[in-house]
């Protein structure tokens, strides 16, 4: 199988079009790009979490999704605060296609797996994929903010990064707690 030239062309997963990627020439441009990407991701997460909570059967998982929704809303507010505190930064309108794909995976689990433990485990896995994406993104953004001298932004990003790490640990704990022999056999 031969790869076409288009398949070999570097592509950013979170851009509206290639022209936007071409504007990334400096670390500040990259910071703005990644910040815009995660802003879109957080908005998508805020829309997906209520669906995931309704689809879950374990009451602790439902509570965790609802709690994370509130946390996500706070993270969006924190991103707004970051932009207000950093005049050099203006978020661009874009769509995070990586998160869009992860949200589609969660929706496929909801639609194709019967409600119960197996679906709950699938939803936890889908949520952890999102958390890992966010951990990577917020870690990169924090490092860029420090390099660019955006001290307040770096502190705000560190808070969110820590929240994402804690959510990942909570999800792992939930996955272990709701695991049963019956669910493993199915």
TrEMBL record:
It comes from the Bacteria. Pfam families: DUF892. PANTHER family: PROTEIN YCIF (PTHR30565:SF9). This is YciF. It comes from Pantoea ananatis (strain LMG 20103). The gene is yciF.
């Amino acid at each position: 199988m031969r790869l076409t030239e288009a398949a070999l062309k570097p592509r950013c997963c979170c851009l509206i079009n290639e022209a936007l990627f071409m504007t990334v020439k400096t670390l500040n441009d990259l910071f703005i790009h990644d910040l815009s990407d995660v802003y879109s991701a957080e908005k998508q997460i805020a829309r997906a979490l209520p669906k995931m909570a309704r689809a879950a059967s374990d009451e602790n998982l439902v509570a965790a999704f609802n709690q994370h929704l509130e946390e996500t809303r706070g993270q969006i507010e924190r991103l707004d605060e970051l932009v207000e505190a950093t005049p050099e930064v203006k978020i661009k309108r874009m769509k995070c296609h990586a998160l869009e794909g992860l949200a589609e995976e969660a929706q496929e689990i909801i639609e194709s797996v019967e409600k119960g433990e197996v679906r709950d485990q699938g939803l936890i896995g889908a949520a952890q994929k999102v958390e890992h994406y966010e951990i990577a993104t917020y870690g990169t953004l924090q490092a860029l903010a420090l390099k660019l001298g955006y001290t307040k932004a770096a502190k705000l990003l560190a808070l969110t990064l820590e929240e994402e790490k804690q959510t990942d640990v909570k999800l792992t704990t939930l996955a272990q707690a709701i695991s049963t022999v019956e669910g493993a056999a199915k």
